[in-house]
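We emphasize that the prediction below concerns an isolated chain of 140 residues; any contacts that depend on oligomerization or on bound cofactors are therefore not represented. The input was used exactly as deposited, without trimming of termini.
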Amino acid sequence: MLDAKDIELLKAAVGEVVEEKLEEKLEEKLEEKLEEKLEKKLDEKLEEKLEKKLDEKLEEKLNPLREELQHTNNKIDVVLDEVVRVHENLQAQIDALEKNVAELRQYYRVDKLENDNMTLMLRLMNDLVKRVEELERRIA
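Result of the prediction step, given as a token string:
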């Protein structure tokens, strides 16, 4: 059988094997953890850089569009101002024309009334002339 010395040698040998296995396992675990952390850090850094680059590129592309949009808005404002100005001028002309039309209508009403009065006066004169002629015939 095994004596105490053999058992001690066996314990030492098993202890060494166990220690080696533990060290290997620890090293593997440590490597895995380091790789995971390194990958995670690299992914984060890469994502940050990509986001930053994308933001910069997007800003580069958007700035000319913003400027063009502002320029277009300025042009629209100018056109709208001109439309308002033309509308006001046309409205003033329409108002003046409506006033003139109202004056013309009033003038034609007055003229029609004068013509009607003149027609009545001529009828009355013709009637008077006929009556005078009738009276002259009766007297003569």
